[in-house]
Amino acid sequence: MFMAMFDYFVVNVAAPSFQHDLHTSDAGLELVVGGYGFAYAAGLITGGRLGDLLGYKRMFVYGMAAFTAASLACGVATSSALLITARLVQGATAAAMVPQLLALINVIYPLHERPRAMAWFGATIGTGSVAGQVLGGVLLEANLFHWTWRPIFLVNVPIGAVAVVLALRWLPDTRGAQRPRFDPVGAVGIAAGIGLALAPLILGRAEGWPLWTWISLIASVPVLIAALRWESRLARAGGSPMVDLVLFKERTFSVGLALSGLMLAMFGGFMLAMTLFLQGGMHMSPVRAGLLFGPLGLAFAGSSMLARRVSGRYGARVIAIGASMSATGLVLLGAVLAWRGTDLASWQLLPSMMLVGAGNGFVLPSLVGSVLAGIRSKNAGAASGMLVTAQQFGGATGVTVLGTVFFSALGSHPSGFGDFVTAMRWVDAVDVIVIAAILGLAFLLPKQAAGMAAKR
Questions:
Q1: CA 425/CA 113 separation, integer angstroms
Q2: Who contacts 427 (Cβ-Cβ below 8 Å, separation ≥6)?
Q3: Is there a contact between 41 and 260 (Cβ–Cβ < 8 Å)?
Q4: How many whole angstroms separate alpha carbon 90 and alpha carbon 66?
Q5: What local confidence, expressed as pLDDT, does residue 411 receive?
Q6: In sequence order, which residues have a C-beta less than 8 Å from that of residue 169 and are 6 or more positions away?
Q7: Phi first, then psi: what are they for 347, rounded to 5°?
Q8: Of all residues in the chain, what percent carry a pLDDT higher than 90?
Q9: Is the overall model pTM greater than 0.85, yes or no?
Q10: Which of 52, 169, 410, 431 is the most buried (most CB within 10 A)?
Q11: Cα torsion for 162, 165, 166, 170, to the nearest 10°?
Q12: Measured between alpha carbons, how far is 70 from 228 in angstroms, rounded to an integer?
């Protein structure tokens, strides 16, 4: 999970290096950065179902080995076309690997141990995301062996090789209680529908929203409807659909997916806007800006570990507690921006950033536990894939919407730091609205959902 999140964020700090070394065009740069997320999100449900079919250990090992090979291909790429291709493969192989993590937690661990495992899972998401920006900047600054940007990918190779060996040795060979058949029509239809929606969300803003982005967004709706109708028909016929629509009849699952998507939309947009604000407005280097995210990552990791105990006592209310902490951080950020204005110092951002990180650390592991708590083992992989897909889709949407808000408020010709402060205040205001919606949805969860595993 650390590797998947690290590689999602690390390319942000290396973008100028790609353009300098490989003469990457603006469109090519968008594909290097966004292609990974596109392939990752589009393949997660299929990757999850393949785990149910072939076994979670086997799919994890296949996915990790292929991800490591794709990372090597990224690191030795000699042209932008090769790097884009390798990034797409890297995203697809991450989609084969990541759903198996949650499925293994759900199948292997007894109920009373799952909250601890989910806490570590949540802590890893936060540290991997922040490390992508912090360690990515450090690796670029170090310029190991004069390889410029290449070490940010090559660092995965020894780690991935060790992970494959340890997985073969330690992970139990397990799958769902029943062996479902693979549904190729559902796999292609769902991946195509998600891809048609994600491509414009990832590329549309930077491209200026040309006609193809709107056609793609509109086309995603009938494609997804047709795919889900096929899934429903297959389920009624006694088959094994990629997405078991019966799962959505469980309120905890459906509300949890919505909460996961919204939380990542808020967090992803916040991280993007804050990066733009620090580097563009405050003129920080990638390393210094990345290091400023360090306390946020530590707060995320610490609250993720604490969430296990809190959720065991307070149940689903811990999600509302975490969302309230994030809301407090966002309100504090707005107040600091309004108070200090152009006299703002970077350290004055730390309390609000840490509150946002801590709040997310409480929410995300608890949500994962809530969503997967009642899932039967035969659907563990598919449900895990759906959960991570909701998170990635939410993250892509948040980056697009809040990125558009930021650049619209900034204007095409910013006159000074004050314009960046105004843009950040607009993003903060939208994030407050999103977190308010999250708080409202949190009260729709059954009271004991998040603490169910701990109490059993």
A1: 42
A2: 269, 270, 273, 402, 405, 406, 409
A3: no
A4: 8
A5: 82
A6: none
A7: -65, -25
A8: 33
A9: no
A10: 52
A11: 170
A12: 32
Taking the CB of residue 165, how many other CB atoms lie within 10 A of it? 11
3-state secondary structure of 332: helix
Spell out the residues 6+ positions from residue 7 whose beta carbon is closer than 8 angstroms to its own.
Answer: 36, 71, 90, 94, 132, 153, 156
Nearest Cα neighbor of 301 from 354, 361, 387, 351 is 361
Place of tokens 């390798």: 86
Enumerate residues 6+ apart whose C-beta is below 8 A from 306. Answer: 119, 361, 362
Residue 168's region, left for phi above 0, alpha for psi from -120 to 50, else beta, is alpha
Residue range 305-357, pLDDT digits in tens: 887 777 767 666 788 889 999 999 999 999 999 998 888 998 999 999 999 99
More confident residue, 62 or 142: 62
Helix 2-9 with 156-170: angle, nearest 10 deg: 160
Tokens of 126: 């936060």
Sign of the Cα pseudo-torsion (310, 316, 318, 319, in order): positive
pLDDT in tens, 231-253: 889 888 887 787 778 778 777 88
Output the six-digit token pair for 61.
């090992």
In the chain, what percentage of residues exceed pLDDT 70? 93
Looking at residue 178, its amino acid is Q
The token pair that represents 351 in the structure block: 């309390």
**Tokens 């000699």, residue?**
78
Q: What are 154-209's pLDDT values in tens digits?
A: 999 999 999 999 999 999 887 655 666 788 888 899 889 988 988 888 778 777 88
DSSP secondary structure code for residue 241 in this structure: -
Longest CA–CA separation in the chain, Å: 66
User: CA–CA separation, 12 vs 25, rounded Å?
Assistant: 15
Distance CA 383, CA 48 (A): 7
At position 217, the amino acid (one-letter code) is L
Q: The tokens of 135 are what?
A: 């360690």
- Tokens 């947009």 belong to 269
Q: With H, G, I as helix, E, B as strand and everything else as coil, classify residue 1.
A: coil
DSSP state of 181: P
